[in-house]
Amino acid sequence: MAVTPVVMCVSGAGETVARRVAEALGVPLHGRAGRVRGADAVFDNALEFARAMFAAGRPVIGVCASGILIRAVAPMLGDKRNEPPVVSVSDDGAVVVPLLGGHRGANRLAREIAGALEAVAAVTTAGDVTLGLALDEPPAGWRLGTPELAQDAMARLLGGEGARVEGAADWLAGLPAGEMRIVAGVAPAEAGVLTFHPQRFALGVGCSRGCPPEELEALVSGMLADAGVSPYALAGVFTLDVKADEPAVLALAARWDLPLRVFSAEELEAQAGRLVTPSEVVFAEVGCHGVSEGAALAGAGDGALRRPKRKSAMATCALAETAEVITQLRGRPRGRLSIVGIGPGQASWRTPEVSRLVSEAEELVGYGLYLDLLGSLALGKRRSDFPLGGEEARCRHALERAGQGRNVALVCSGDAGIYAMGALVFELMDRGAADKGVSAAARRVEVICSPGVSALQGAAARAGAPLGHDFCAISLSDLLTPREDILRRLKAAAEGDFVIAFYNPVSRTRRTLLAEAREILLQHRPADTPVMLASNLGRVDELVRYRRLDALKVDEVDMLTVVLVGSSNSSLAMLGEGPRMYTPRGYARRIDGDLSETG
Fold it and tell me: Which part of the chain is the Tetrapyrrole methylase domain (predicted)?
């Protein structure tokens, strides 16, 4: 899905203009706290906010001085092909300047905003200014078949050369006449010739479960070659919904960077009267008379078959053609569930990948507090808030929504795979619907697991380096784990002299296991072993305390506290700014000369 732009306003002087921009784009207005009173959402620091949105892949439109946006994103600049647009708008609305991502939507955004404000779009991209187009950004429905030639071709045109366009492409009609060949057509590109392909074809495919990816690719490649059609003239790969997770189909779409869209058997059966090779066998098996032909026709809409079904031992394919380029894809996406961990709480500990996945998601699912911690990233998105204790319900809901073709983010604190929802998602997917799992559609979704900063990492960073040597994590919640198992693991960790991070140390009704853990540990390590209590990490009410192991009191701990217990070697370094906890790895022997550098 297209990522929603962010409109931000830094001062009251630009509020009226910013509101007009936000309304023109149909998005919320973000304003600096205390400066912009009519904003839909607020931020405290303009540089940090712009940087976070840029890192998340959101187009940033700032009604502010250009320098603010430049300073915000400058440390993050890298590959211009992957950077989101950044646009600056003057407070009086007179000038709109695309600063970054001119060929990734910034120029278009600038012109759209300028039109709404009756302002000047200060587009400086050479191709747009001189030629009125960018060769590396063809319009919707067209694809550049030879991207490696675009930059040189643009440089030659800007240097005064002209071009000869072969084929029908109205958007290239304004180029100056000359000898450089530019081809617009569906056939595969010639070597060394700048070629643009109109995406007028829908590729329908089907295959048996476990079909080798190379078999499907060879079948399709042969059909396209016989038809004289480049893979880049395809608008997408279309198939039956039960094939949404078929590795061969996924590999084919990835091979040519094509979107995958799926249809139900009923939707494909609606094409039965247009099929060239209907099959009763296929109908008996999947509920429609043809998968590849039906999917190609459904994907093409009013188009017609260019190539009927072609088959191999385990795969089929067909090709449908339309009169005009395809700009709106039919069918539904496979569906994606991103399992993301947002860290302990503060935005600076949230990874850019997590921010990007949240930005791309259509829907957010999670415990309400965690969704609130996303701040502006969650604004305007559909939310499904679940209470504590609703873990199974939220995972089922997220999977089933993704199974309907939606892009869903399941939001967890810390790292989603550490005492969070990651394992439960895969446990539900590992069960069939009859075994109290999730639906078949939910089991076919794409699942992305993105790492986050876990609570034990956040606590360790605040302490110093308590995890400098071997450590483990133990949850003291006996809601899902038998008490006997927890005690067995506690004894083993105590005997092994591990640094231990205790998760879920206490609750309102569970107060004894932490005290038992203390007594077990005291049998194997000194009474003065340092213990760190870290509560509300990364939040305004963060609290960090140190205790001796024998002085650890259960009443000081709650469910928002991570308890780090040192090993017998852990120490507190008493520094001017306060104590810092660390666990040496053994370098003292080398420092003291007892261990050779090569030992």
Answer: 337-549
